[in-house]
Automatic annotation (TrEMBL):
<dbReference type="InterPro" id="IPR015856">
    <property type="entry name" value="ABC_transpr_CbiO/EcfA_su"/>
</dbReference>
<dbReference type="InterPro" id="IPR027417">
    <property type="entry name" value="P-loop_NTPase"/>
</dbReference>
<keyword id="KW-0547">Nucleotide-binding</keyword>
<comment type="function">
    <text>Probably part of an ABC transporter complex. Responsible for energy coupling to the transport system.</text>
</comment>
<dbReference type="GO" id="GO:0016887">
    <property type="term" value="F:ATP hydrolysis activity"/>
</dbReference>
<dbReference type="Pfam" id="PF00005">
    <property type="entry name" value="ABC_tran"/>
</dbReference>
<keyword id="KW-1278">Translocase</keyword>
<dbReference type="InterPro" id="IPR003439">
    <property type="entry name" value="ABC_transporter-like_ATP-bd"/>
</dbReference>
<dbReference type="InterPro" id="IPR017871">
    <property type="entry name" value="ABC_transporter-like_CS"/>
</dbReference>
<dbReference type="GO" id="GO:0042626">
    <property type="term" value="F:ATPase-coupled transmembrane transporter activity"/>
</dbReference>
<keyword id="KW-0472">Membrane</keyword>
<keyword id="KW-0175">Coiled coil</keyword>
<protein>
    <submittedName>
        <fullName>ABC transporter ATP-binding protein</fullName>
    </submittedName>
</protein>
<keyword id="KW-0067">ATP-binding</keyword>
<keyword id="KW-0813">Transport</keyword>
<dbReference type="InterPro" id="IPR003593">
    <property type="entry name" value="AAA+_ATPase"/>
</dbReference>
<dbReference type="GO" id="GO:0043190">
    <property type="term" value="C:ATP-binding cassette (ABC) transporter complex"/>
</dbReference>
Length: 287
């Protein structure tokens, strides 16, 4: 069953001079098994949107259901795993083990079942067992991010919701998180991630939701997104669009450096072939 939002509005500081409409009349449907990217500028409403998915925030108007249920129900809370924008904010236990075990214990699983889930989540998040006794706050940014991820995975969620999971990580840390998410998605988990890192995430995204000033300004497949004007693109896709607009016959709907290289080399070969044919034709007319 999907996540369905109908005519959702969310306000902060309602009925005060500081009132802010963070989401305005949002309609959205996220199907199970998708890899969804939520994009938008700072303050667009991205974090507000995802906090609705597990009932952390309640809408001021409209309706949201997850698998047909109210998101603040206990059943939904255990099905939706969340990793916040600042992982350090969600780590509060003394050891990595306690941190990952917190969710399953809280939802009433036995010590034994919990232990199984901790080891499973640890492996899924590409963490070493030797890390289990460490203080979570002594870890590097990338490791903290993966401990928070393991904590969410220990509930074996249907939906994994992440807020900027690779921001602030070094290239190796980014790559590891992206690989991990790809693996988790391959196991059937729906992944919804807020990101402004199009370079890293774009190849993974199947559907894109673009938020602008609290409203959804685009939702659709990556292909549809690529065909839309005035949307943020990964740098390599912007470059390909620019080359295309300058008359170089590359396919502009390319979003990885590898594909761009292949495409540019294809055009180079095509130009060389045309040139050789032209020269041959000229030589024949000379004869
Ligand atoms: N707790 C809060 N109290 C008051 N206003 C808030 C609160 N949280 C968010 N806002 C405001 O609501 C709007 C949407 O915020 P939100 O955090 O959802 O944006 P965002 O797209 O996640 O931004 P960013 O990219 O900076 O994380 C912004 O104008 C923000 O200042
Ligand atoms: Mg945010």
């Amino acid at each position: 069953m999907p996540i369905i939002l109908e005519n959702i509005s969310v306000f902060y500081s309602r009925n005060t001079p500081l009132e802010i409409a963070a989401l305005k009349d949002v309609n959205l449907r996220i199907e199970k098994g998708e890899f969804v990217g939520i994009l938008g500028e700072k303050g667009a409403g991205k974090s507000t949107l995802i906090k609705l998915f597990n009932g952390l925030l309640r809408p001021d108007s409209g309706r949201i259901t997850v698998n047909g249920l109210d998101p603040s129900s206990k059943k939904v809370k255990s099905r939706v795993g969340m990793v916040f924008q600042q992982p350090a904010d969600q780590l509060f236990c003394r050891t990595v083990y306690e941190e990952i075990a917190f969710g399953p214990l809280n939802f009433g699983y036995s010590r034994k079942e919990t232990e199984e889930r901790v080891f499973e989540a640890l492996e899924a998040a590409s963490l070493e067992r030797s890390m289990l006794s460490r203080d979570p706050l002594s870890l590097s940014g990338g490791e903290m991010q993966r401990v928070a991820l393991a904590g969410a995975l220990a509930l074996r969620p249907d939906y994994l919701v992440l807020d900027e999971p690779i921001t602030g990580l070094d290239p190796a840390g980014k790559k590891e998180i992206l690989e991990t998410l790809k693996k988790i998605k391959g196991q059937g988990t729906t992944i919804i991630t807020v990101t402004h890192n199009l370079k890293g995430f774009f190849p993974l995204l199947e559907r894109i939701v673009l938020i602008k000033e609290g409203r959804i300004s685009f939702q659709g497949s990556r292909k549809e997104y690529m065909e839309t004007e005035n949307v943020p693109l990964p740098p390599v896709a912007s470059m390909m669009r620019e080359l295309h607009s300058r008359g170089i016959q590359v396919n502009p709907a390319v979003f990885t450096v590898e594909e761009a290289l292949e495409e540019i080399l294809r055009v180079k070969l095509m130009i060389e072939k045309e040139k050789a044919e032209k020269e041959r034709a000229e030589k024949q007319t000379e004869k």
